[in-house]
Amino acid sequence: MLQEWVILLVSFCYLGILFAIAYYGDKRADAGRSIISNPYIYTLSIAVYCTAWTFYGSVGRAATTGAGFLPIYLGPTLMAALWWFVLRKIIRIAKVHRITSIADFISSRYAKDPLIGGIVTIIAVVGILPYISLQLKAVSVSFNVLHTFQGKTHILPAADSVISNPYINTLSMWSGTALYVTLAMSVFAILFGTRHIDASERHEGMVAAVAFESVVKLVAFLVAGIFVSYYLFSGPTELIYDAVKSPELSKLMNLEALGGGYTNWFTLTFLSMMAIMFLPRQFHILVVENVNEEHVKKASWLFPLYLLAINLFVLPISFAGLLFFPDGSVDPDTFVLAVPLHTNQEFVALFVYLGGLSAATGMVIVATIALSTMVCNDLVMPVLLRIRFLQRSDLSSVLLPIRRGSILVILLLGYVFFRLIGESYALVTLGLVSFAAAAQFAPVILIGIYWKGASRRGAIAGLLAGFAVWTYTLLVPSFVKSGWIATSILESGPFGIELLGPYHLFGLNMFDPLTHSVFWSMLANVGLLVGVSLFDRQNAMERLQAAHFVDVFRHEDIDTGLWSGTTTVAELKGLVGRFIGVEQTDKAFSEYAAEHDFDVKTKALADANLVGFAERKLAGAIGSASARVMISSVVKGEEISIEGLMKILDETSQVIEYSHRLEEKSRELEKATAELRAANKRLTELDRLKDEFVSTVTHELRTPLTSVRAFSEILRDNPALPLEERQKFLDIIVKESERLTRLINQVLDLAKIESGSAEWTRECVDLNEVVEEASSSISQLFHENSIHLEEIVPEGAVFVMADRDRLIQVVINLMSNAVKFCEPGTGQVTIRLSTLPGKVRVEVVDNGPGIHPDEQERIFEKFHQLKGLRDEKPRGSGLGLTICHRIIKHHGGHIWVESKPGAGSKFIFELALAEKV
């Protein structure tokens, strides 16, 4: 047991750290140096999804259903795989239209209707209150566990008996830990969530603090898991082995332990898929606070890794709790705290408590900021703007107080819900009620961003029907379980009509209560949304917004005029200034004027684009629906007709399509130009090489021909020459003739190989014999130049399937090249044959001057020649190595060179081994 003052001191010190981080984040943002503009902070902020439910409730659920906690994290993992296609589109829409909340998003899609925004806000507030109360309950219960748990003999109430906890019920409604935490959270949310009138501006300090909390809760839960698994036990294996010994615990290893079976598993997976996107706090973090949509790529795989890490030790902790408290005397939701306390590890328990506090505060702060924006923009402002004497008043000074008051009211309502209803529910149950409420937003958003036919009336009908069914099948039973409504409604239905029972509506009694509610609410929601839309006639505004949302990647930069009427620039500035302040308005209009090249002071009438700009600025402050109402109050005229709207959209689409085609043609031309440049460069190089080749070959042909002719003429004109001298001249003629033949053969060989007309034979060839024959053929060359030749070959035959003569040609070419670059007298050439797994390698090594790295890349190119050791000009035709490369490549092998300047060269080729036939 820890002293109360210690727990409070640590709690408020931790909250102080969060204040400091948020303050620093806002300061850096004001200075233009954002600390949240990276995908890792974005991913950590998304982890606000992991609330006190994750920290405490998952362990409690695992203790009763085994793997039943997994669907809550499997759903977000599956949805993350779709983020680049779905979430990125939603983010792009939100940035283009300056969306401030999920209510603003839905109302903007459906003709900027204030009624839809109000309905969504009411659903969100009512639906999220159980979730907020869950966090407050978790903080309160965890505080009480730390403060009151005294050891093995101490008993904490189980989940189904929390309402009878004498400690809680003896407290006044307006006292206790939960109330103090509620007030502290409200102060934080007010300070760092309502600094700007423009709600579309990012709350960088708040996001930084949430990211820090995500790190703390992950580390704290891992510490708890490692402590339980490796300190109290010898590892998870021993822990699970001990659990399996118990017949009761072994049942948790099967999926059958999940209440509701497989159907409930899929229901939870679906709800969590929708919750990660459409809970107001998740939408706020994922969409409104997004800095760069490219961050979605990394978050789509990093966030599932975070979920995996924070759930690694859920089952070990739950099993440990069940082993330590087999009599059910301790609420499974508190196992993560009770187990360390049971083993007198109070500091571990205190750190774990901080992790739970982080999980709860992060969710509450972000949720209340998101809900307060919705309440202000979609509930309060539409009412205020219809009060006559306020229609011309400056309301910029009341927007922030409204949001701040909304934060306090929402948190207090969550606290009241916790005290009146939440105490009779386990943590997970409270969370699932809110998940089912958030799922009601999924059809109007997902269908709305992909189907232009979804209409405003269809959206209203679907939302109201889904919310009504959710209220009747989940919320009403929560009041029944808390004792506020008679239990007869659950058993026999209202007025004794069993078909209308909340848990067996219309006689459907095959599902658990949660699956039953989700089935009927989603059926009503989607059915009415689609059914009414199919038979509805959309007005001009509905069609325009539908086109902008569905085709956001095509229309995002188009500023389509919405009005056929007119207004003045002064009236627009005055209107916008009433909500965001005169100074901010002047700055915004000046920047717009500079960008569009006109003078605000001299321009009298505002065009449609300027009206659209003013509407978007207002949308950031008061929401799209209210902005629409206010703009319509100053623009003199009527909305354009459907025909006019369609004409604008058609013309816009044609312009965009034409622009896209031009861009595509431009890219094709650039690509073709680059290819032509490369081809021209290659042709120029080939032309240069051709000239060099012609020059070299001409020289090489002329030299032996000149020698043959000269010595032949000497022999003809001097018949009396001595026999010894005559023999010498004949030897020179033969040698030069062989050289001439060799040169011509190389040119012909390469031409045949490249044209495909060369004749090839395939036979089983012994490479030892190839090396021996090539060495014998060229031995005279080594003798004449006083160069030592060493042969290293393995014992036994080494067979390959190849053309024998061609391989001999390759070896001779490589060995003659080696001789050419070795110093006479001191030169040494080694030919080495070795076998490798599945292949054979031949190496020709010399101790010549080596080859420069730049030359190594080009040495196998046609006509490319290296200077000989003793020649100023290159020798040969420059075709020998090219022919070698073509022959080895034809045999499916590989040839390359390894060399360092001054350290000789090594030419290597490899071929596949073959069995002797």
TrEMBL record:
Record InterPro entries: HATPase_C_sf, HATPase_dom, His_kinase_dom, HisK_dim/P_dom, HisK_dim/P_sf, Na/Glc_symporter_sf, Na/solute_symporter, Sensor_HK_Regulatory
Enzyme Commission no: 2.7.13.3
Bilayer topology: Multi-pass membrane protein
Location, primary (coarse class): membrane
One cellular component term from this protein's GO annotations in UniProt: membrane
Family in the record: Belongs to the sodium:solute symporter (SSF) (TC 2.A.21) family.
Name the record gives this protein: histidine kinase
Lineage, highest ranks first: Bacteria, Pseudomonadati, Thermodesulfobacteriota, Desulfobulbia, Desulfobulbales
